[in-house]
Specification:
Elements (H helix, E strand, L loop, with lengths): L1 H5 L5 E2 L8 E3 L6 E2 L1 H10 L2 E2 L13 H16 L7 H17 L9 H9 L15 E6 L5 E4 L4 E4 L8 E6 L3 E6 L2 E7 L7 E2 L7 H7 L3 H9 L3 H12 L8 H8 L1 H5 L1 H14 L4 H9 L29
Parallel strand pairs: 1-4, 7-11
Antiparallel strand pairs: 2-3, 5-8, 6-7, 8-9, 9-10
Length: 317
C-alpha cells in the first residue's frame, strides 16, 4: 500500500479510468468500485478518476514505471534468487538507491524533494491498516444465526431478523452483518467449520436457554439425581461425535424425573447401563414398558436330565 510506504495519506488519489476502479464512467460523478470506496473512506481521502481519453488528467506514473524498469529490473534479470524474501530485499535495496540518487542536473534526490515539499502535506495514517472486505449473503435461520458460507460457520443476529435476508461483510479478522444498509451485528471471525459464534443478547429467551447448554451442565444435573444417572449421561455424551449432538437426548432423559419420579429414572438408567444401550429411546422404552421394575435376578441354572441319547462329558475322555 503506497500510503504505508510514504507514511501518510494524500488529499486525493487520481487513478486511471480502469474497470477495476471505476464501475461506471462519468465526467462529473463516476461510480467507484465498492472496495476502492471503502479504502478511501478508511484513509479519509478522495478518489478522482482521470477522465476517459484525457491523458493530461493522468499522473506521471507510466513514466516512473519506465524509469524503475531500467533502474531495477535490469539488475535482477541475470541473477538467481532462492526465496521470495531474498528477491524482495534486493528490490528494496535497488529502490532505495534509486530514490537517493541525485536527479540529473539537480543537487537533490527524489527522496530529499519528497521530504522537503510533499511529506508535510500528507495526512497522518489511521492506526489500523485497511483490510479488504468480502461479501456474502444469507437468510437468518430460525435459531437466530446467519451462515458465512466461506467458512461454514454461524454468527448470531438479533432475533427480530429471523428469516430476513442479510449481507455479511468479512475480513481476515471480523464479520459484520447488515440488513438494508444498517449494521445489526459484528463478530470476530471464527474459522472453525460448523461452529456457532453467539452473543446472548441477540437471542430470544427461549433460545438463550439453549445457548447455555453444555456437557458439564447436564452432568451436574444428572449427578444431583443419582450417580447411575450421571454415568448414563456421560455415556450418552461420549457416544456422539460431537457433544452438542447429545444435548437434546440428555434433556429428554433428565426431564423424565418430573414425569415418572426419581427412583424409576434411576432404575431405568441402571438397566440401560447393564445392556450398554445409550439413547433417549432406550430409556423411554424401559419406562413405557415398566422394565425398570422387572427383577434383574439371574435365571436359575437347570441341569440336563439323564437320557440315553445324551453322551455326557465322560464320552470324550
Amino acid at each position: 500500500m503506497l500510503c504505508v510506504f510514504f507514511e501518510g495519506v494524500p488529499a486525493a488519489i487520481v487513478p486511471d479510468n480502469l474497470k477495476s476502479a471505476v464501475i461506471k464512467s462519468s465526467r462529473f460523478e463516476p461510480t467507484i468500485n465498492e472496495t476502492l470506496a471503502d479504502l478511501a473512506e478508511h484513509y479519509e481521502t478522495t478518489i478522482l478518476p482521470a477522465r476517459a481519453y484525457k491523458p493530461r488528467d493522468k499522473s506521471l506514473a507510466e513514466g516512473a514505471v519506465k524509469i524503475l524498469y531500467r533502474r531495477i529490473y535490469v539488475h535482477l534479470k541475470q541473477k538467481q534468487f532462492y526465496s521470495l524474501e531474498e528477491l524482495n530485499q534486493q528490490i528494496w535495496d535497488l529502490l532505495d538507491a534509486h530514490n537517493h540518487k541525485k536527479l540529473t542536473g539537480r543537487p537533490y534526490s527524489r527522496y530529499e524533494l519528497f521530504i522537503e515539499d510533499e511529506k508535510q502535506k500528507l495526512r497522518p495514517l489511521p492506526q489500523e491498516r485497511f483490510e479488504i472486505k468480502y461479501q456474502s449473503f444469507a437468510t437468518v435461520m430460525q435459531n437466530g444465526h446467519a451462515l458465512l458460507s466461506q467458512d461454514k460457520s454461524y454468527y448470531s443476529v438479533p432475533y427480530q431478523y429471523i428469516r430476513k435476508k442479510v449481507k455479511l461483510l468479512y475480513t481476515k479478522t471480523s464479520v459484520e452483518i447488515f440488513y438494508k444498509y444498517n449494521r445489526i451485528a459484528i463478530h470476530p471471525r471464527n474459522y472453525k467449520p460448523y461452529d456457532y459464534t453467539t452473543i446472548a443478547e441477540h437471542l430470544a429467551s427461549t433460545h438463550q436457554f439453549v445457548a447455555d447448554w453444555s456437557a458439564s451442565r447436564f452432568m451436574d444435573w444428572a449427578s444431583s439425581i443419582d450417580q447411575a444417572v450421571a454415568d448414563y449421561i456421560i455415556q450418552i455424551i461420549e457416544s456422539r461425535n460431537h457433544p452438542e449432538q447429545a444435548y437434546k437426548s440428555c434433556l429428554g432423559i433428565l426431564n423424565f424425573e418430573k414425569k415418572v419420579g426419581k427412583q424409576r429414572l434411576i432404575n431405568a438408567c441402571k438397566r440401560a447401563l447393564d445392556f450398554r444401550i445409550y439413547s433417549f429411546k432406550a430409556i423411554q422404552n424401559i419406562l413405557e414398558n415398566n422394565l425398570d421394575n422387572a427383577d434383574n435376578e439371574q435365571e436359575e441354572e437347570f441341569e440336563l436330565p439323564n437320557h440315553n441319547n445324551i453322551r455326557g462329558k465322560n464320552y470324550y475322555k
